[in-house]
Amino acid sequence: MLSSTSRRAFLKNCGQLGVACAACGLTSFASAAEPTPTPAAPAKLPELHTLAYCGLTCDNRCQLFKATAANDVAAKKKVFDEWGLKAKYGREFDPEKVFCYGCKSPGKPRNESKTKCTVRACAIEREFDSCLQCKGLAACDKELWKGWPDFHKNMIKAQEAYVAAGIVTLV
């Protein structure tokens, strides 16, 4: 299907889709970062290299990640509809463009939003496994954090947990 959308608008929309995909994992990681009310042993923190550059845990808890892994077009369409992506990005559903393998999946295609993610680019440039290693995370004003301030707060809490556990030294 041909579209009259300009390349610039398409790339902008893909960037916005990336932010939406990143938010998908917010709930799963946010709940893992909350302290447990019982005096049970502390939960083991995931290895930094297994996290996305923003600190997310990309796995089957994310509807889009799960739909992509299963190559389930109906599930992708459901995510597309539930997340209101047509209204947000002004385009019709295309199962070839609605996917996410996470931003660290070697050998897997990256949607265009991953290549535009400023958080991802910064972490790669600074040779971090995750932004959780950055001493400037709390003050960082990249688009992802502006668009999802609660996610940003949860990543700051996660960073504090990694520092307290002696896993991360801030750089």
Discrete helix count: 9
Structural class by SSE content: mainly alpha
Helices and strands, in N-to-C order?
A: HHHHHHHHH
Shape: globular
- Which stretches are poorly predicted, pLDDT < 50 over at least 5 residues? 19-40
Terminal CA distance reads: 47 Å
Percent range of helical residues: 40-55%
Tally of structural domains: 1
| Relative strand content | under 5%
Mean pLDDT: 80
Radius of gyration from CA coordinates? 17 Å
The total beta strand count reads 0
Largest sheet: none
Layout of strands and helices, then pairs:
Layout: H1 7-24, H2 26-33, H3 63-70, H4 73-82, H5 85-89, H6 112-116, H7 118-125, H8 143-147, H9 149-164
Helix pairs in contact: 2-9, 3-4
Can you offer a commentary on this structure?
By secondary structure, the protein is an all-alpha fold. The protein has one domain. About 50% of the residues lie in helices and about 0% in strands. The protein is globular. The N and C termini lie far apart (about 45 Å).
Please sum up the structure shown:
It is built from 9 helices and no strands. It has 171 residues and is mostly helical.
Keywords:
single chain; 171 residues; mainly alpha; 9 helices; 0% strand; globular
